[in-house]
C-alpha cells in the first residue's frame, strides 16, 4: 500500500527534490537486492514461518519509523531497511509452497499465489489512494497493521517446515550457482525482468513524452489488473497441465511482442490494447517459475534457490529503468524493438534449457524408484 506512493510522499510530505527522492528510492532498490539472498538463507536456516512472520513484523516497524522520520539520514536508513524486510516473504513463501504442495500441483498453487498478490495490489492501489487523503501517517499505520495481521496469521495457521539440523549445514549459495540449469534459469529470468519491468518504468515516460497524461497510463495499466484478476484463475488449471518451459517461453513471447507493439501506437486505446497483449503473456507465466525453481532445488536449499531467483528480479528492478530510459533518450522507436528482441531471446533460452531440466527430473525419478 505504501510503496506506490513513496515518491509522492518524499517530494510532497518531506519536500525533497526529484533528484533527492530518486537517490532515496535507489537505496530501497539496494535493500531489495540484499533482501533475496538474506531471506533465502534465513528461510533455510531458521524456517519458513519464522522468516515470514519476522519479515512482516520488521516491515510494520519500519513503516511506522519511516512515517515519523524527518531527517534525510533517517529516511535513507529506513528506506534501505524497508527494501530488505518488505520482500523477505518471497523466498519463504516460495519454499513453503514447495514443502506443502505436491510437484504436480505446484504450478497451480504458485499461480493462485500470483493471483492473490495481484488482487491484493489492486485493492491496495485503490485504498491507498483514498487513505492518503487523510494524510500519509494514516497510510503508514494501516500498512503496518495489515503487515502485522499477516504475520500473526502465518504464525498461527501455517505449519513450520525446515530441513533437519545436519542438512542445514550442507550447501549454500555457491551450491545454487554451481547448479548449471539453475544458474542459467536465473540469468534468463534476469533478462526477462529487464523486459517486463519496462512496463512500469519506461512506458509511463514514453506515454507522457508522447503528449498523453499520467491518467492515460493509469487507464491503460488498469487493463492489466482487470485481466489478471478475471482471467488468470480461469486459465490456472489449463496452464498447470502444460510443459512448463514451453508455456513459459510462450508467455515470454507474448510479453515481448506486446511491448514491441508499443512502438506502433500513440493513443490511450492503442496503449491499452498492447497492455492487453502482454498481460495475456504474463498470465501464461503465472506460477511456472516458482514450480521450476522448486523442481530444481534440494529440499534443504529451497529458500536459497528461491532467493537466487528473486535476486534476478531485484537486479532487474535496479537496471531496467537505466536501460529503458537510455534507449528512450535515443528514440521511442528504438526502446520497444530492443525490448521485444531481448524478450524473444529469453524465450529461446528457455526452450534450450527445458530438455536438460527434463532429463534431470527423469533421472531423479528413476533413482527414487530404484531406491524404493
TrEMBL record:
Keyword Membrane in record: yes
Compartments reported by the entry: Cell membrane
The record's Gene Ontology cellular component field reads: plasma membrane
Q: Which Gene3D superfamilies does the entry link to?
A: MFS general substrate transporter like domains (1.20.1250.20)
Q: Which InterPro entries match?
A: MFS, MFS_dom, MFS_trans_sf, MFS_Transporters
Transmembrane region(s): 15-34, 72-89, 110-132, 138-158, 182-203, 215-235, 247-265, 271-296, 308-328, 334-353
Quick check: keyword Mitochondrion in the entry?
no
Q: Which domain of life is it from?
A: Bacteria
Q: Which Pfam families match?
A: MFS_1
One MF term in the entry's GO annotations: transmembrane transporter activity
- Report the membrane topology from the UniProt record: Multi-pass membrane protein
Q: Please provide the record's keywords in A-Z order.
A: Cell membrane, Membrane, Transmembrane, Transmembrane helix, Transport
Check the record and name the PROSITE patterns matching this protein. Answer: MFS
Describe the location of the Major facilitator superfamily (MFS) profile domain by residue ranges: 1-358
PANTHER family assigned? MULTIDRUG RESISTANCE PROTEIN MDTH (PTHR23517:SF2), RESISTANCE PROTEIN MDTM, PUTATIVE-RELATED-RELATED (PTHR23517)
| Name of the molecule in the record | MFS transporter
Which organism encodes this protein? Microbispora oryzae
